[in-house]
Amino acid sequence: MLELFLRAAPLLEKAVLVTLGLGFSAFFCGCVIGLLVALARISPYRPLRWFAFSYVSIFRGTPLLIQILLIYFGLPSYGIVMGPLPSALLALSLFAGAYLSENFRSGILAVDKGQWEAAWSMGMGYWKALFRIVLPQAFRVALPPLGSRLIGLMKDTSLASTVTVIELTRVAEQIGAATFRYMEMFLMVGAIYWFINQVLTILQTWLESRLSRRYA
Predict the structure, then answer these.
(1) How far apart, in Å, do the first and last CA atoms of the chain sit?
(2) Alpha helices in the chain (DSSP H)
(3) Residue 84 CA to chain centroid, in angstroms?
(4) Alpha carbon of 77 to those of 41, 80, 85, 159, 162: distances in Å?
(5) Sign (positive/negative) of CA torsion 101, 198, 12, 10?
(6) What pLDDT shows up at residue 201?
(7) For every residue of 24-38, which 3-state class applies, written as one string?
(8) Cα(52)–Cα(36) distance, rounded to whole angstroms?
(9) Is residue 213 very low, low, confident or very high in pLDDT (cuts 50, 70, 90)?
(10) Which residues lie closer than 8 Å to 199 by C-beta, 6 or more apart?
(11) What are phi and psi of 131, to 5 degrees?
(12) How confident is the model at residue 28 (pLDDT cuts 50, 70, 90)?
């Protein structure tokens, strides 16, 4: 297996960078989308609430693989042509945004209403109170599910291989097909995914501990 690993190492090195870049980029974009959707879900305006509910329902209720395929193969029928990587990034971001919106929403709702009232009594407007008082507390509550979503998203990047993105799973398929050593290749790639997610888990645990001490 060592010989196979050394042979695959140059491709795996590039694939790891693609996987990490795709995962972190989709998580960042998903956080932006998720926060906006969460705010729409708790908005006093019914059209915004219905739009946000519909978005979450669609993207949480359909498989990510179908969403990737629809964007990559379906949108060109309407004149919208995107490359493999942008297609995968868009699908992963929209998919993650639906789940992250619920994490943010639950975190915001967990903050005591008295925090809002105290901020308003000090003359803060809605947005200032949200970003300076509510969101820092909501983030601490939402951190565990946010970390889990990032870890899940790193694994979901493997589905980008279906639209020819050269990430870890795609490299395993290619080298496995060339050498007929699928078992070893997928075991190696599985170990790399595990290592990445273990590092993220350790970072999440450290951040949770740090925030707990800060707000103790």
Answers:
(1) 49
(2) 2-41, 46-61, 64-69, 84-110, 113-121, 126-129, 135-156, 168-179, 182-214
(3) 18
(4) 32, 7, 19, 22, 19
(5) positive
(6) 93
(7) HHHHHHHHHHHHHHH
(8) 9
(9) low
(10) none
(11) -80, -30
(12) very high
How confident is the model over 115-122, as a mean pLDDT? 80
Q: What are the structure tokens assigned to 105, written together?
A: 């929403």
AA letter at 184: E
> For tokens 């926060």, what's the residue?
35
How far is the C-alpha of 185 from the C-alpha of 8, rounded, in Å? Answer: 9
Place of tokens 């740090």: 210
- C-alpha 90/C-alpha 83 separation (Å) is 11
In the predicted model, is pLDDT for residue 70 greater than 90?
A: yes
What whole-number distance in Å separates Cα of residue 82 and Cα of residue 2? 38
**How is residue 181 annotated by DSSP?**
-
